Amino acid sequence: MIEWYKKVVFQNYANFNGRARRSEYWYFTLANIIVSIILTLLDNALGTKFGNSGILNTIYSLGIFIPSLAVSVRRLHDIGKSGKLLLLTYGIMIVLVIVMVVSGLSLFMSGSAPSMSSLGVAFFGPLLALLAISIWMLVLFCTEGEKGSNKYGPDPKNDISEINEIGTSEL
């Protein structure tokens, strides 16, 4: 797990080209969650928390933002999808959140009690769309990569490259 994390953060910090295996993406994600939990606990223990976030965790999140995007794009490349898909889904999600906030504010500022149908349109429609997009992206990130080379590069699961990685890591 640590090797995959180091590969993403140090060797491929801002590399949006090529492909990333499922194990690279998910081990990086797991290590990222563990580091975030540890930093949150440290922020709480040291009293460096402001609002819902802490200074250490915020600095870490800002530093890991680019590698997180890069490994996500490379993961999409592994299944033959463009990295622009990630940008599109984030854009749609941001628009849906804005719609929810604006709709909610306009409902509650109207002065009258909002009806269940207006609440449903304002919150549950966009919320279901956000949930559907999140599930779809999760399925994409869990999908096995294309066998062999694709337009984004050689198969990272190629047996020869794995043997080379094992040989160089033991030296």
UniProtKB/TrEMBL annotation:
Residues 149-171 are annotated as: Disordered. Keywords: Membrane, Transmembrane, Transmembrane helix. This is DUF805 domain-containing protein. The chain crosses the membrane at residues 25-42, 54-73, 85-109, 121-142. Residues 149-160 have a biased composition (Basic and acidic residues). GO terms for cellular component: plasma membrane. Pfam families: DUF805. The keyword Metal-binding does not apply. InterPro entries: DUF805. Signal peptide: none annotated. It comes from the Bacteria.
